[in-house]
Amino acid sequence: MLEDEPLFTARDWIKYVARCKGVDESFFSVPSRIILVYQRLGFDYLKEALRGEEKEWLYEDRPIFIAELNGKKISAFRPWIGAPAVAAMLEELIACGARYVIEVGLAGGLNPR
Predict the structure, then answer these.
(1) Are 36 and 104 in contact (CB under 8 A)?
(2) Which sign does the torsion angle of CA 100, 34, 17, 62 carry?
(3) Is residue 1 predicted with pLDDT exceeding 60?
């Protein structure tokens, strides 16, 4: 089976957003270490504990938080909920420099009682 070529890549999207915002692509670069946190409370706690700074990223409602931990830059990000959204954002984060990802979240289930 032959694989189709993508119409555009995460890197293409970053180039487009950079052009629209009038910034260089490097504006969206992120540290290689990143923590994904889905819950607002957990994300706020992480920001407070790491004491870094927020940085505008690709999406205005989703800034990235960058700090230093044990002499290494680390970032925290709160992606949108849902596997398709997270997969797309993770591809974009990787295109921006993320290489080591820790994902923190909760899972639920249904109980018939």
Answers:
(1) yes
(2) positive
(3) no
Distances (CA, A) of 25 to 22, 29, 37, 61, 64: 9, 7, 24, 19, 15
Amino acid at 49: A
Residue 79: how many CB atoms within 10 A of its CB? 20
| Nearest Cα to Cα of residue 91 among 30, 10, 22, 37 | 10
Ramachandran angles phi, psi of 86, nearest 5° = -65, -40
Asked if 92 and 11 touch (Cβ cutoff 8 Å), the reply is no
Which residues, in sequence order, are CB contacts of 89 under 8 Å at separation 6+? 62, 77, 79, 80
Pair of tokens at residue 97: 């420099």
Whether the per-residue pLDDT at 106 is higher than 80: the answer is no
Q: What is the DSSP letter of 42?
A: H
Decide: 18 and 25 in contact? Cβ < 8 Å. yes
The answer to whether the pTM exceeds 0.90 is no
Asked whether the beta carbons of 65 and 54 are under 8 A apart, the reply is yes
